[in-house]
Amino acid sequence: MEDHEIRNVRIIQLLDKEKKCRQNNETSGLSALLVEIINFFFEKNDLDNIISQLVSLSKKRNQSKNAINDMVKFCLDKVYHTLNENDKIRLLNSVIEVTEGKIFVEVLL
């Protein structure tokens, strides 16, 4: 299998696990999975997919508040510090989109 095929299979597996955890209300593993999904793209230096997944995962129905908190915190603690100024602005705009109107996340920021 080529590298991009392995990558696609891995992200599909992670997203499938996330869906199952979310649907079964398994909040303990959900936070770790969301962070793992973001970290997967972070390790590939793929900011577009980090932003896409950050927004998409936060909008999923019945998504755990703690999982969203952990995902946003990971983005701000680890990803943000590795970016150039333009990419920092892109990430921050996405974080604002995710956190806007959500008091449970805004307190974290």
Describe it:
The protein is mainly α and 109 residues long. It has one domain (3-106). The chain is built from six helices and no strands. The chain has helices at 3-23, 27-43, 47-58, 65-79, 85-99, 103-106. The N and C termini lie far apart (41 Å).
Number of domains: 1
Uncertain residue ranges: none
Q: How would you sum up the major sheet?
A: none
- Average pLDDT confidence is 89
- Roughly how much helix do the residues carry, as a percent range? over 70%
Number of helices: 6
Rough shape? flat
Please specify the SSE layout and strand pairing.
Elements: H1 3-23, H2 27-43, H3 47-58, H4 65-79, H5 85-99, H6 103-106
Helix pairs in contact: 1-2, 2-3, 2-4, 3-5
Summarize the structure.
The chain is mostly helical and 109 residues long.
Descriptive labels:
single chain, 109 residues, mainly alpha, flat
